[in-house]
Amino acid sequence: MDDTRIQQAKARFGIIGNAPALIKAVGRALRVAPIDLSVLVTGESGSGKEFFPAIIHQYSPRKHAKYIAVNCGAIPEGTIDSELFGHEKGAFTGAVTSRKGYFEEANGGTIFLDEVAELPLTTQARLLRVLETGEYIKVGSSEVQKTNIRVVAATNVNLLRAVAEGRFREDLYYRLATVVIDVPPLRDRGNDILLLSRKFAADFSEKNHTPLITFSDEARERLLAYRWPGNVRQLKNVIEQMALFEAGNEITVETLAEYLPHVSTTMMPALRITPTLPAPQGLAHDTHTYEREREMLFSLIFKMRKEIEQLREDVDRLRDTLSPKSLVKIHPPLIDTPAEILDARAEEVSRDDTAVSRSDTTPRYDSLPEKEAIQLALTRNSGRRKAAAEELGISERTLYRKIKEYALE
Ligand SMILES: Nc1ncnc2c1ncn2[C@@H]1O[C@H](COP(=O)(O)OP(=O)(O)O)[C@@H](O)[C@H]1O
Ligand SMILES: [Mg+2]
Description:
Strand content: 5-15%
Bound molecules: adenosine-5'-diphosphate, magnesium ion
CATH topology of the largest domain: Rossmann fold
Number of strands: 9
Radius of gyration: 24 Å
Helix content: 40-55%
Mean pLDDT: 83
CATH class of the largest domain: Alpha Beta
């Protein structure tokens, strides 16, 4: 994919970052855009998945028709069929008029199904039919309707695992995942973290006429080393809070610790040696040595991070050989190099649940019984369900259901 086209698309949609995996994702979106295939966008929550269906729509011949984004996790199970496919008057109590569904409304255009793994199995069956034949039936009707729609779906869960567990239809998975675009987690984007920090800080002060914040070297290192479980959404949130309450200040590690959960200033004591203490007589090289020591420690930490990443990849690969990867092989991808797509699919194993990467931040929920994990997440987030759900890596709706199920709160 031509690099200037990628840069143009990034500028047009306000996408910041130059990490190769991000560039690759944008390039794939541009390449598949004019070809009428379903696309599946995968990536952790907050990583920026929503740009991709919009890019695909805007660079496709459907760009003058409608684009509708539906968050499948936010619609109650009871009404989702009617929202997507419409209903006839009298189809159920309260259906006083007939209603158009999104598949009718967006006819000729693109529909973005966000959190697609949350679709109930019955809706999945309807969706498969409309993808295969363009046909659907309104709720309460017997008449077959036709629509011409391109579907782009997104998920932050491992759909192959959902297939293996019987929560997602295998045939629908292959329909949707003809082309997979994997959005990398923020922690893997290196210097993009700083680019985004500066951008969010600058946007905030421009919009609100506040003096700009700056970052100390150490604070920058911490931003780079942090795990960012909430990805770009979390970074934006943290930077905006600091831009407000620390307007005009230099952000130090100490300030950062106030805004970033689990960044403690005492986490790595060696790194906190500051040359403020008077050096003992005769040791005039103090600051210099401290700087160098610090540098060495940082490079050590980065090396360790690399090794952990390597380990994580090995674990993922190992898990893939044990899980239904064989399924991937019997369905050859239709476009692009097969190896690339197979890779993208194989990489889908969510990183969130890889124990080794769960360092010091989010608790290891996967090692707890479900009820306890939910209780802990709710407590940690002071009862805010949205935040708790994000931390647990489940949808808000699933969380509501579980809270009821376990009679929590
Ligand atoms: N590369 C990026 N450059 C600028 N803003 C970004 C980038 N990635 C994500 N964002 C912003 O982060 C927030 C979360 O992105 P979103 O697409 O909603 O995440 P997801 O759908 O993957 O959960 C949005 O405000 C989005 O604009
Ligand atoms: Mg989203």
